[in-house]
Design brief:
This is Cell division control protein 14. It holds the Pfam family CDC14. InterPro entries: Cell_div_Cdc14. It comes from Xylaria hypoxylon. The protein starts with a helix and ends in a 9-residue tail after the last helix. The chain is built from 14 helices and no strands. Helices cover 56% and strands 0% of the residues. The protein has 2 domains: 103 residues, no CATH class; 125 residues. The longest helix has 20 residues. The protein is mainly α.
Amino acid sequence: MENLLSLAFDNLSSYDGMKIRKGLRQVEGLLANICLSRQETSKDRRASMARDPGQEQESPPNCKNLSELSDDPAFYEFFKLQEGFEWNVAVRLVNTLDRLLAKGGDGSNDLLILKALDLIQGAMLLHPPSKALFSREMYMNLLLDLIEPDFCPAIQSATLLTLVTALIDTPQNTRTFESLDGLLAVTSLFRSRGTSRDVKLKLIEFLYFYLMPETPSIPSAAPRDSLPGLLHRSPSKLAKVFSSTNAGSKDDDGRPRSAGDGTTRSQEEKQALLGRHLNSVEELVKDLRQNTLFNGVVS
């Protein structure tokens, strides 16, 4: 697996679009092989055909469920490799995304950005501790830059989905998002007349997600080698009980007090923060609690 990652990383570090595309495909192939069930052997296939002669000769591989994935040796090896800087896929993909942004916008470059965003989501889902990258302002700013009006609707939608993946169950990242005026960026895009309806739907989905109750992050280990502490956790530690955090305090003016790294905010606190930029927050919260999503919110 190290050899496969090494080849992919060499291509991803290039400034040549063709090599970057090749590296993204190599990463995609690796992640796909981890997520998909192994193909049946010829013997298994013949036995299956004997039981049901009417079935197709070749059937697509099925996705593994979570229990199968956690016991899979390939996934375990991949997870262990992600614990260090040298083999961490998310780090390489984010750095590639940074270079793609610097190249400017054209059709082929946009496709590379979309593929990089898709793979960053996959890397974070397969290795949740990699989400800790987005607690750093430089990486969170990359995502906020990609929802600017300069980018096409497809990139804006993919970025919002990546942002949700980075924030879910990771309050520390949400606090970074808030401190960088992420709410202002999101609501400004929503209010803009130039924003497409599909992107507005994604923005509403994001706001519903943002207003949901937060889950405390898994306690982080001590950071080392310039990596966030969460990147050094082993698979067996991911299921440990979450640590308790403090939330709910307000300052003398009644506004939510700034939360420390990794601490959660209540729904009321986040509602107050979002209310500074959007007038219809109460309706969003009401719909969220009643599960009547998207009820006339997007015109």
